[in-house]
Design brief:
By secondary structure, the protein is α+β, with helices and mostly antiparallel strands. It folds into 4 domains: 107 residues, Sandwich (Immunoglobulin-like), CATH 2.60.40.10; 155 residues, no CATH class; 117 residues, Immunoglobulin-like, CATH 2.60.40.740; 113 residues, Up-down Bundle (Four Helix Bundle (Hemerythrin (Met), subunit A)), CATH 1.20.120. Helix content is 25%, strand content 39%. It contains 9 helices and 35 strands. Strands 24, 26, 27, 28, 29, 31 and 32 form a 7-stranded mixed beta sheet that branches. Strands 13, 15, 17, 18 and 19 form a 5-stranded antiparallel beta sheet that branches. A 4-stranded antiparallel beta sheet has the order 1-3-6-5, with no helix packed on it. A hairpin with a 4-residue loop joins strand 31 and strand 32. The chain is extended, with a radius of gyration of 37 Å.
Length: 617
């Protein structure tokens, strides 16, 4: 027994040492710091290690900055269990607050810690310090600070000063304004603000003459500081689109009017009086922001060659073949791979001149490109399958790929290598060649036997005079339909009784009706119709409670619903969950923050509350 215990102890110790060693190899230290700050302003630098088993933290050299506070150490841990599998993560964070004094570009070096005797370092990061620019109209500082949602906020303006186009505006820029057809253009809309912008609504309209693809950007906007006309603005790229002009001429990108919500301080309310009276000294002000229109000059492509592929951009082509020696009737695969960036979607399938004795099939196209800011970048593969029908030596000629090069503004031709294939005689026996309707040749194999048996095996014989009438099978043919009729009659009668009980029928359909209303709410969520969305969610929640409990409209209130659900056997937790979702929904339409994220959470919580309540009842 002692020996077994010693073996288990040694094995456990070995596994622990191995796990710690492997864990140490996967430890990283990340650094978080703003890319630009304003001279005289404070900012935060954080070093995060994805484990708490650390020691001997060594801070970097903060040359060019004054350390006001730090290091402050904090830690966090999380534990998850999904489908019976548990996962745990922990981290430790070292935080510094720095003061930037002199404008310039500075590099914060690497910090280091010891993890199980190994040094783990962070990467150096660069911070640009801008000279102090003028603030907003009120003369107050527009220095930014981090918020819980990741959005930066500024000191709000007062209503007396108003908000001008110098305090809040958007720019529209195109990466190119003089292009050829199908040449990619990056369209960027960027916000410049000195005020506390909390919401912004607007989208790009349909553009005539352009194929549009939106570049996905993070939903949580991270502002940075940028100097513009002597003022330090908080800026963020709001949206980006990739445009492919489909026709020539002067094409216009119209101006867009966005509607923003700005939080301002109300000068008409005394802050001390507002505090004691429970009033708010802040107010929301709607502001329309109009972007400038852009004109793109699109030149037509020069006279197109006969074998033009339709590709516009920068490309290369490679090819390979599965085998250079095969038997007759054995398939050969030829692959062409076009790599580069441009209008990858519009590249036509290259034409391959296979020998006439090859039976060919349509090419299989495999797209492996992704949306980037320079166009669609990646590769596009074309896979050709051909079957040689007769022995001999054949040549697949080189494939020419013609595209329009956006750098040289001219057509370029790329050529693959030719392939010589040796086709041996088929091992399947003799064959004759005949022509099919399309003119291609196929093989016809001769059969060894041209007379076949009509039927093989034992035959079932019957005595003369035997009839089906009066047998047990004949009687069963009458009995089975009669039994089915009786069963259906009984089931139908039960169903009629159930339908006659209106309360029971209403309760059974409560979940179905509620989920149908939630589908309508999902469409309103996708359309970002905030007011109608919350109304539909509340109708689903109250309607579910009324149908499930068979309550009339005048008795439908939260206290009554709570009492009835508990009496029906629902748990206190599920009842509180349903009531909480109703309260959150009623409060959400007037609550600050990201409305899209709030609507997503409300929708998911409502679905969960209805489903779990249905399971309990």
């Amino acid at each position: 027994m002692k020996r077994i215990y010693s073996i288990l102890t040694a094995f456990t110790l070995f596994v622990s040492i191995f796990s710690l060693s492997a864990f140490a190899d996967g430890v990283t230290m990340n650094v978080s710091a703003p890319s630009t700050v304003e001279a005289g302003g404070k900012f935060r630098v954080q070093f995060t290690v994805n484990t708490q088993n650390v020691s001997n933290f060594v801070a970097p050299d903060f040359k060019g900055f004054e350390v006001i506070y730090g290091p402050a150490t904090s830690s966090q841990s999380s534990f998850q269990m999904i489908n019976g599998r548990t996962s745990q993560s922990s981290s430790i964070i070292y935080t510094y607050v720095l003061l930037s004094d002199v404008p310039g570009t500075y590099t914060i070096g690497s910090a280091s810690v010891q993890v199980d005797g190994k040094a783990v370092k962070s990467r150096p990061t660069t911070v640009k310090v801008l000279s102090a620019g003028s603030g907003n109209n009120s003369g107050s500082s527009s220095r930014s600070s981090g918020s819980a949602s990741g959005r930066q906020t500024t000191e709000p303006l007062t209503t007396g000063t108003g908000i001008t186009t110098k305090d809040l505006f958007m720019t529209a820029t195109a990466s190119r304004t003089n292009v050829h057809e199908q040449e990619a253009i990056l369209l960027t809309y960027k916000i410049y603000t000195l005020v506390d912008l909390t919401e912004l609504d607007g989208k790009l309209p349909t553009l005539d003459g352009f194929q549009i693809q939106e570049i996905p950007l993070p939903r949580t906007k991270e502002f940075s500081i940028e100097q513009h006309n002597g003022r330090n603005y908080r800026t963020v790229v709001w949206s980006q689109y990739l445009l492919f002009p489909q026709k020539s001429g002067n094409l216009t990108i119209p101006s867009i009017t966005y509607e923003g919500v700005v939080v301002t301080r109300n000068r008409n309310i005394d802050p001390i009086e507002a505090f004691f009276n429970g009033q708010s000294g802040m107010m929301e002000l709607k502001k329309k922001i109009t972007t400038p229109a852009l004109t793109i000059k699109v030149s037509p492509l020069p006279a197109k060659p006969d074998n033009f592929s339709g590709a516009v951009g920068k490309f290369s082509i490679t090819s390979n073949i599965s085998s250079k020696e095969v038997d007759a009737n054995e398939a050969v695969t030829l692959k062409l791979c076009v790599k580069g960036s441009g209008n990858m979607k519009l590249i036509a399938t290259p034409n391959v001149d296979f020998p006439k004795d090859f039976e060919t099939y349509d090419a299989k196209v495999n797209d492996k490109f992704e949306l980037t800011r320079s166009g669609l970048a990646g590769s596009k593969e074309f896979e050709y399958l051909a079957v040689p029908r007769h022995p001999g030596e054949y040549t697949i000629p080189a494939v020419k790929f013609v595209y329009f090069d956006t750098d040289s503004r001219s057509y370029k031709t790329l050529t693959t290598e030719p392939y010589t294939i040796k086709v041996n005689k088929s091992k399947g026996g003799s064959s004759q060649s005949v022509s099919n309707y399309s003119g291609q040749q196929r093989d016809v194999q001769q059969l060894n036997q041209d007379i076949r048996f009509i039927k093989k095996g034992d035959a079932e014989l019957h005595q003369p005079g035997e009839t089906f009438f009066g047998t047990w099978k004949y009687g069963l043919g009458y009995l089975i339909p009669l039994l089915l009729f009786l069963v259906l009659a009984i089931l139908g009668r039960k169903q009629m009784k159930a339908n006659a009980n209106v309360a029971l029928s209403r309760g059974k359909k409560a979940n179905k009706v509620a989920l149908k209303r939630m589908k309508t709410a999902k469409k309103l969520l996708d359309a970002r119709d905030q007011g109608k969305f919350y109304d539909e969610v509340l109708r689903a929640l109250w309607g579910y409670a009324a149908d499930k409990l068979n309550l009339p409209q005048e008795s439908l209130n939260k206290d009554n619903v709570k009492e009835q659900l508990l009496s029906r056997g629902a748990s206190q937790e599920r009842v509180d969950q349903l009531i909480k979702v109703q309260n959150d929904c009623e409060f959400a339409r007037y609550a600050p923050g990201d409305p899209n994220e709030t609507m997503e959470n409300i929708y998911n919580n409502a679905i969960q509350a209805i489903t779990q309540m249905e399971d309990e009842l």
